[in-house]
């Protein structure tokens, strides 16, 4: 298995993105970290380069909904690090309300950030990977992509199902080439997003276990992975099969 030395992570200023950055830094990888909160990125970069003096950590301010900037920032990271070996499309938003209850703006913002901006990130990453004829694209989807979700998860789940289908399609497109594409579907992992959800997060994994599990799944370069695998892999089979009336009570 190729060691992916230069790794770009979007949404690296907190939660899963930050947790992955810490683990890849400890494994000696160079990092390109972006998000809107650059103060947090700069603090993280300073800490990581002090702890792991052999690595390079580049940072940039990026709002993934500014699509032109996504292309510019990815290309400038590639120039700075001499190429990119892995891009993790992780930036995401957990906003959303039941459809038809007056929250179109929040639902649209969720879909734009998690799906349209994910498309921009995949386009920018794949341009670089096609030029290099190498690279690993990782899309952070969600367990909520497995089937239509009720309540405040409807738009979020739809955006994540779209992101998963996007990654799966790109994987089919580059099948047989040196480019790899992975879709990761986290269950609930402690982060700013889960703490904002008002406590209704069953089976939540701690941030450390979640990040360990994500990095393990990504390093394996499997096509699709539920993380942590327990209990989310068996639950994915069960929840897909349940009648909708039972399903809506459980999620
Ligand atoms: N935690 C879970 O249980 C869970 C489960 C399934 C999937 N996920 C997915 O995992 C990813 C990370 O979420 P998290 O749980 O770590 O949440 P989080 O702590 O809220 O982190 C979200 C990250 O995305 C960035 N972000 C949000 N909107 C952005 C924008 N417009 N432009 C650039 N960056 C943006 C944030 O950075 P700035 O605010 O600094 O820009 C932050 O770094 C998301 O895609 C989420 O959907 C999480």
UniProtKB/TrEMBL annotation:
<dbReference type="InterPro" id="IPR002347">
    <property type="entry name" value="SDR_fam"/>
</dbReference>
<protein>
    <submittedName>
        <fullName>Short-subunit dehydrogenase</fullName>
    </submittedName>
</protein>
<comment type="similarity">
    <text>Belongs to the short-chain dehydrogenases/reductases (SDR) family.</text>
</comment>
<dbReference type="InterPro" id="IPR036291">
    <property type="entry name" value="NAD(P)-bd_dom_sf"/>
</dbReference>
<keyword id="KW-0560">Oxidoreductase</keyword>
<dbReference type="GO" id="GO:0016020">
    <property type="term" value="C:membrane"/>
</dbReference>
<dbReference type="Pfam" id="PF00106">
    <property type="entry name" value="adh_short"/>
</dbReference>
<dbReference type="GO" id="GO:0016491">
    <property type="term" value="F:oxidoreductase activity"/>
</dbReference>
């Amino acid at each position: 298995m190729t060691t992916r030395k230069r790794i770009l992570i979007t949404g690296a200023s907190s939660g899963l993105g930050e947790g992955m950055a810490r683990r890849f830094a400890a494994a000696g990888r160079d990092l390109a970290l972006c998000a809107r909160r650059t103060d947090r990125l700069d603090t993280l970069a300073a800490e990581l380069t002090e702890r792991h003096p052999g690595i390079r950590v580049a940072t940039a301010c990026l709002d993934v909904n500014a699509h032109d900037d996504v292309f510019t920032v990815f290309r400038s990271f590639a120039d700075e690090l001499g190429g990119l070996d892995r891009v993790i499309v992780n930036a995401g938003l957990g906003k959303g309300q039941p459809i038809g209850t007056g929250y179109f703006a929040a639902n649209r913002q969720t879909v734009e950030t998690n799906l349209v901006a994910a498309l921009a990130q995949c386009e920018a990453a794949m341009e670089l990977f096609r030029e290099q004829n190498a690279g690993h694209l990782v899309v952070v989807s969600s367990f909520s992509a497995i089937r239509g979700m009720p309540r405040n998860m409807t738009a979020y789940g739809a955006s994540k199902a779209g992101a998963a289908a996007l990654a799966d399609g790109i994987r089919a497109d580059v099948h047989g080439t040196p480019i790899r594409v992975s879709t990761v579907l986290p269950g609930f992992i402690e982060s700013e997003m889960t703490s904002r959800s008002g406590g209704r997060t069953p089976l939540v994994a701690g941030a450390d276990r979640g990040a360990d599990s994500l990095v393990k799944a990504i390093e394996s370069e499997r096509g699709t992975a539920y993380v942590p695998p327990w209990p989310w892999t068996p639950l994915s089979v069960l929840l897909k099969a349940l009648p909708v009336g039972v399903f809506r009570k459980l999620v």
